[in-house]
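Replying to the earlier thread about multi-chain prediction with a worked example.

Input:
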Amino acid sequence: AANVDENASARKFASYTVFKGKAALSISPILPNFTKIESGGSRVKKNGSVMLTFFPAVGQRQYDYSKKQLFALSPTEVGSLISLGSAESCEFFHDPSMKSSHEGQVKKSLSITPLGNDNGYFVNITVLNNVQKTNERLSVPVTKAEFAVMRTALSYALPHIMGWDQALTSHPQSPTAPAS
Amino acid sequence: AANVDENASARKFASYTVFKGKAALSISPILPNFTKIESGGSRVKKNGSVMLTFFPAVGQRQYDYSKKQLFALSPTEVGSLISLGSAESCEFFHDPSMKSSHEGQVKKSLSITPLGNDNGYFVNITVLNNVQKTNERLSVPVTKAEFAVMRTALSYALPHIMGWDQALTSHPQSPTAPAS
Amino acid sequence: AANVDENASARKFASYTVFKGKAALSISPILPNFTKIESGGSRVKKNGSVMLTFFPAVGQRQYDYSKKQLFALSPTEVGSLISLGSAESCEFFHDPSMKSSHEGQVKKSLSITPLGNDNGYFVNITVLNNVQKTNERLSVPVTKAEFAVMRTALSYALPHIMGWDQALTSHPQSPTAPAS
Amino acid sequence: AANVDENASARKFASYTVFKGKAALSISPILPNFTKIESGGSRVKKNGSVMLTFFPAVGQRQYDYSKKQLFALSPTEVGSLISLGSAESCEFFHDPSMKSSHEGQVKKSLSITPLGNDNGYFVNITVLNNVQKTNERLSVPVTKAEFAVMRTALSYALPHIMGWDQALTSHPQSPTAPAS
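Result:
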């Protein structure tokens, strides 16, 4: 338990946020989870992700964080985003209750479409709730410079959310005898 | 011996796997080995690699891991893969028993060919066993987004499987006197 | 206090400097600041930056560091710079006293314009001081090779000045029971 | 002194070597040196480099390491190499005795010229010794895949040989009070 507290206090959070007229978009990385394996080491149990958080503007430079909408990008979705050509678009669909009894009640989609003339992208989230009969939509225009930050941050994060940095960390070993 | 146990328990494994209709493909990084040198430090004795593991589908979303086929990419083969143009292909040939008395009994080849229209690649492994008279072939279509994940993960892994991250890690030193 | 001293003595500084006929330009990274949060961990309180320092030549290979002009690039400005096409330019405006009573007294601008024929860029800083009635301008031509160093260093620095490297650092955890 | 021994034993070496018909070429990274500064921290005193080592073939897959020729790439030369277009060439000149009484006795040049058709590069070193009246020249053809390894390894090494990884390493700090 002492260990767990120590971990919690060591945990650090970072994000990249763009604030625009109708909404803001924040992206932040989430670590993978490891599980022990019988041979004594551990392996990735669940990949990490890059969380996109949208929150609507409710006034001049004021945003309502309580009305946020979340979309967690998987490694392959991150791959799609970082390889997006300047005139290309992409769209992802998520069901937050997939494989549960609530499957199909909420449908989320994230689309990224070019603003044109190599000027950046529109990033849109749509959340359709069939139970509450609501359909929320938030759109954030992202400039070319802002998208370059996202692309660089996502490319950096990708090996980490898959645990490759930990798999590629060398631990002290007792090397064999000097080479002849 | 206590040290060795500690190392084994600290070792972490990570991979990236795509599951397709006829087979799945998993890639995972393998660390280099170091050996002590007379001057007191150590140097890379054997480069690491990126292991490709193919396993065939035996039903709806069911794969037979016992029938897996392996192909370990060397640093130069990784270089070939990450610099592959969207309309280019590459092919590598391995003999798992090279320089042994069994040389030539098994011939493995890995080929990567474009799906067309910048849509990704087919990754194919062929294992020809002249003794058992078998010829196994597994093919996995990889989308552009999935290949972007592989390219990013391989680019990240490359300096690590060659030991450059360890050679570039600074150890505490006693700096010289303050600069004037 | 002992802790603080230890930190100060552990702090390391690095830069990349190009010395040209009329001025020199040095770039160096600055770390972000973290602040504790209630749940026990910490989050980025203030992003880091990449500091550009210009200083004028006062003779053959002699530069007057006391006449230096500073310009701190934000993450988004770094994104603009690393995604700059070979024929594109960009310009940023800063007010060092923004949101203080001195707002508007000093106006700084940084512009990056192509030298032409894919030969690199001119990096210019202009500092207009409305109180002292001065207008300083320093220009440094940067070759394609030097800009490649800057681009690579800035791309490397970007996730670090946003704290993503720290958010993506895994701390020892007690993994769950072995996977079945 | 005990500290120094510990450092020497912890030092690790890694390289990437291509063996060709007439000569082999090995590249390996060299760390920067830091020096203490008055404020208590330290700063880069001397940049690291990437060392190119050429050694001639003296038979079938046999190379004479005693006849090696060295060329240390500075950060800007690394920048030139990693930004080299597929049809471009570059050339660097070094005088190993620059600013000494032996200046001009030995002239080294490294040139990188395209093999044509996006097939890689010829990497050539020429060492002209005006005292010994010798002119050594070694050429190594580097394939596109091998150059991709070099480019990736050099891009990775660049921030490290300039000390930016150490300047961007966060040391434990006592964060300020929780944010409100």
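Residues 1-6, 173-180 of chain D have pLDDT under 50 and may be disordered.

Feel free to reuse this layout for your own posts.
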